[in-house]
Amino acid sequence: xxxxxxEKLSTGEWSPERFRHHxxxxxxxxxxxxxxxxxxxxxxxxxxxxxxxxxSVVIGPRIAFNPIGTDFTPVAGTPFRVLTLRMRSxxxxxxxxxxxxxxxxxxxxxxxxxxxxxxxxxxCSVERFSGASVAVLPDAVPLPWLDQAxxxxxxxxxxAVLASELLGDERRVRISMPPGELADDSALPFVxxxxxxxxxSAPGVRDALVExxxxxxxxxxxVDQPGVRRDKELLCDPAFSxxxxxxxxxxxxxxxxxxxxxxxxxxxxESFGGLCAGWTALHRPDAFGNAxxxxxxxxxxPDLTWGTGAGELLRRTPxxxxxxxxxxxxxxxxxxxxxxxxxxxxxxxSRWLDHVLTxxxxxxxxxxxxGGHDYAWWRGLFADAxxxxxxxxxxxxxxx
Length: 400
Known about the structure:
Pfam families: Esterase
Radius of gyration: 23 Å
CATH class of the largest domain: Alpha Beta
CATH superfamily of the largest domain: Alpha/Beta hydrolase fold, catalytic domain
Protein name: Enterochelin esterase
Number of helices: 10
CATH topology of the largest domain: Rossmann fold
Number of domains: 2
Distance between the termini: 37 Å
Structural class: alpha/beta
CATH architecture of the largest domain: 3-Layer(aba) Sandwich
Strand content: 15-25%
Oligomer: single chain
Order of helices and strands: HHEEEEEEEEEHEEEHEHHEHEHEHEH
Number of strands: 17
Organism: Streptomyces parvus
Strand order of the largest sheet: 10-11-13-12-14-15-16-17
Helix content: 25-40%
Shape: globular
């Protein structure tokens, strides 16, 4: 089955100009329902002559864009190329096109969908995920607070440099206070978000929830992870966790009216950042009473390696670090929000972690979403995390 507008283009009923106008009006990809829970999704590119195009999506075994492996098909007599795929109808996912010139496949040029520009907040600290288009299929769980954040004004942020004696380095820290006037005796709850960037979605999502009266006014702190150090700092690194507790928290409280109660403090992150948030809060519940783990890399262990050949016959697979540490100790007084994509390779470890946390009696909320290891979901589900951590006194966030 082909999308009706593509059929009209291919038969000449529509000119390329009319088809292009249709795409600009409706947006892409084009979606046709074919059953109660499946759709046909048509991607369209206009790449120029002698160019082949492939699609990659953030669903699959790689923690990156996974190539679909099928070339787009030219629509004869037009500059357009199309690819139609059958999909479950509840997906939300980031995607890019890769254009290959006439000289051969090579690395190609990775670009967003020209008829579906990347949304606001699409730039992130991990460059390979930045600048992607997002497809939202008709039965995808809505993310209304992200929609409001994307439509609203950019929240004000302070920016300063934290010099760490413990780590011997410096990093940028951005602080966004909640909307509205603060009382003189305010002691705000706050969330520290790892992998912070100037255009992060968290302050905007927070503003939407505060203005709706659904969460307590809270500050958002965005901590920069310099690229060359990120993969060390976020992998259960005691020195980095000490910096957060012994340097960052006092530094923040000297400058802003922030609560000193651990129950009012959350540490948040995605992927490696989610691993760090969970591991740090587990070991320092006196500092962080809440942890927000979004697709955490909880399969990590420093001694875990994979290879091929006879060496594999001697390999021993350790219990991942975060899971092992939860098993080894009595439950810490930490509330944990944990989400993961149903279609990402790390969900097996997330399910294991949730089983262990639940068995230990942790106060935890676990969610699986219809997608992969993807900012397209994390940005919006962060609202559910704030509703879990800092609901208004009259509510408990159960409507999230």
